[in-house]
Amino acid sequence: MIILLITRCLPLPEQIRFLSLHPSLLALCRTSLSPIPPTVRAALISSDPYPQLLSRLPTLSLYLPDDGGQLFIDLLVRARPRWILETLECGRWNESIWQEAFERRFLRSWRRFKSQDDSWRAIFLR
């Protein structure tokens, strides 16, 4: 537990390096005690520009908690639009993740622009 508290104080790139040092540390990333989500939220709030590693986070599946995509919903809701479109390596997440991110980020009235043929990913990125 103390190691996780110390890990949360590290910047995201150093945190990833530290967590990869031992399999037991890496296993902690898959639990609800993962230090990654609080670090990502803090980076989204305070960093300008965002850390480079943040854009590649969806590809680092070993370090991501089993939270049903909640980390990516927060990322899609809080990040700057230009950064999402130009830099973020968007994963192939479930439609439910894209739908929740759309509903939390945009006005309810914007749902009218979604046709039957559109996916939630497409309407979010549009």
Give an overview of the whole structure:
It is a single chain. With 126 residues, this protein is an all-alpha fold. The protein has two domains: 2-91, no CATH class; 93-126, no CATH class. It has nine helices and no strands. The chain has helices spanning 2-7, 12-19, 23-28, 36-46, 52-55, 70-78, 81-86, 95-105, 120-125. The longest helix has 11 residues, at 36-46.
Q: SSE layout and pairings?
A:
Layout: H1 2-7, H2 12-19, H3 23-28, H4 36-46, H5 52-55, H6 70-78, H7 81-86, H8 95-105, H9 120-125
Cα separation of the termini: 42 Å
The computed structural class is: mainly alpha
Query: How many DSSP H or I helices?
Result: 9
The H/E string reads HHHHHHHHH
Poorly predicted tracts of residues: none
Major β-sheet, in short? none
Tell the overall outline. elongated
Number of domains: 2
Mean pLDDT: 87
Tell me the total number of β-strands: 0
Proportion of helical residues: 40-55%
Q: Which value, in Å, is the CA radius of gyration?
A: 16 Å
| Strand residue percentage | under 5%
Keywords:
mainly alpha; 126 residues; 2 domains; single chain
Summarize the structure.
This protein is mainly alpha-helical.
